[in-house]
Amino acid sequence: MMRFPTVLGNTLLITASAVAVLVLFGSLAAYPLARKTNRIYNFLYIYFIAGIMVPFQLAMVPLYRFVNALHLVNTYHGAVLIYSAINLPMAIFLYAGFLKATPRELEEAAWIDGCSRFRAFWVAVFPIVKPATATVAVLCSLSTWNDFIIPLLFLQDQDRRTITIELYMFVGEHVTNWSLLFPGMVLSVIPLLAAYLFLQKYIIKGIAAGSVKG
């Protein structure tokens, strides 16, 4: 029997938390990288973007040892931190590309009005990067929601299973419970489909700005 409310709640909690962390830290990290042009910031930008080319499987064993040493295995915040770290290079890439296309006059006007650099970013800059935020949210939600390896390794407790692990329980070597597998697959797709339909008008803008103007 599939415990759909439990696994759906686990998946929603991990996905929403990871997206929130990525939007917060991804935008803050990309802001100075997009505005500064000296060698240090250019090196840091390349350093972050290089993370896109490094596959997770390459660091899977040392990462598990590290997370286990911190006693974060079978914890929600451990999974959230892992997903955030894996998706952070993509978030920075998209935010930096979009921020490079935004006018500096917006934050300069906020500085004149007495805002600090931090407040100027949230008040004047962040609201106009909604396409990048929507793109980061959708892409990172897809990679987190549909992931199988990380929950299998780091969420071994039955009460912390995600949808992908729960669906896998219905697939056996000789017998597959199709009567539970197919409904579970349909139910697992509905939240992502709803999120995509709600944010679709921003996604193309965000990807285009992040890949072309960056």
Report on the architecture of this protein.
The chain is mainly alpha-helical. The protein has one domain (4-213): MetI-like (MetI-like fold, Orthogonal Bundle). 74% of the residues lie in helices and 0% in strands. It has 10 helices and no strands. Helix 2 packs across helix 4 (76-99). The longest helix has 36 residues, at 178-213. The chain is elongated and about 65 Å long. The model is unreliable at 210-214 (pLDDT under 50). Residues 8-199 form the ABC transmembrane type-1 domain. Its main location: membrane. InterPro entries: MetI-like, MetI-like_sf. The chain crosses the membrane at residues 12-31, 43-64, 76-99, 120-145, 178-199.
Low-pLDDT residue spans: 210-214
Proportion of β residues?
under 5%
> What does the average pLDDT come to?
84
CATH superfamily: MetI-like
Helix content range: over 70%
The top-level CATH class is Mainly Alpha
The first-to-last residue Cα distance is: 48 Å
Query: CATH architecture, please?
Result: Orthogonal Bundle
Largest sheet: none
Figure out the total of helices: 10
| Overall morphology | elongated
**H/E order of the elements?**
HHHHHHHHHH
Structural class: mainly alpha
Number of domains: 1
The strand count comes to 0
CA gyration radius, whole angstroms? 20 Å
Q: Examine the coordinates and then state which fold CATH places here, giving the name of the CATH topology.
A: MetI-like fold
Transmembrane segments: 12-31, 43-64, 76-99, 120-145, 178-199
Protein name: Carbohydrate ABC transporter permease
Membrane topology: Multi-pass membrane protein
Keywords: Cell membrane, Membrane, Transmembrane, Transmembrane helix, Transport
